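input
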Amino acid sequence: MNIEIKKSKKPVKYQTALKFMEKRLSEIHNNKSNELIWILEHEDIYTAGTSYKESEIIDKSIKILKTNRGGKITYHGPGQLICYCVIDLKKRNKDIRKFISSIEKTIIDTIKSYNINTFADKQNIGVWYNDKLETKKIAAIGIRVSRWIAYHGFSININNDLSQFKKIIPCGIKDKGVSKLKNIKDINYKFFSKKLINILIKNLQI
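output
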């Protein structure tokens, strides 16, 4: 299984990343390139998926970039790990649900390696952490499928500015909060992306 691993050290503009993924999708469809796992960060940006509502924008002064991914509104910024994938589901029985479950399992297992317990929720896509007082989202997932090739991906809050989420209703969910790994356990997450990639590749095996 040939999956290219790409890591960007400097923040990547959202539109630049989207164009790269769409180009790779076309190349995979035409059997001209390998599948892709791409680790990066974005500069501060709010993106809205195909099912967002205007009422989910609390601070009307912020700029929202409408995208073609699934899901609602979320925030990306420094300190948040982004993992974009361009994966051929034709090689994986065209099973979108299994693909998303593989992503959830990857996130949960990677965080578990730091002795932090998180979980998936059938009602609310993503990965969650049970704080003492409330359930908080630690990772958001937004996928689009075109020609049975899945792209976009997920974000994990490691050490980003959580106050930015107060300007929106994150992922359209009102009764749950947002957290980050540094708040849960204040340790070094330097090798997080390396662990994540190894687990994701294993979970995506055909």
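quick obs: The longest strand covers residues 135-146.
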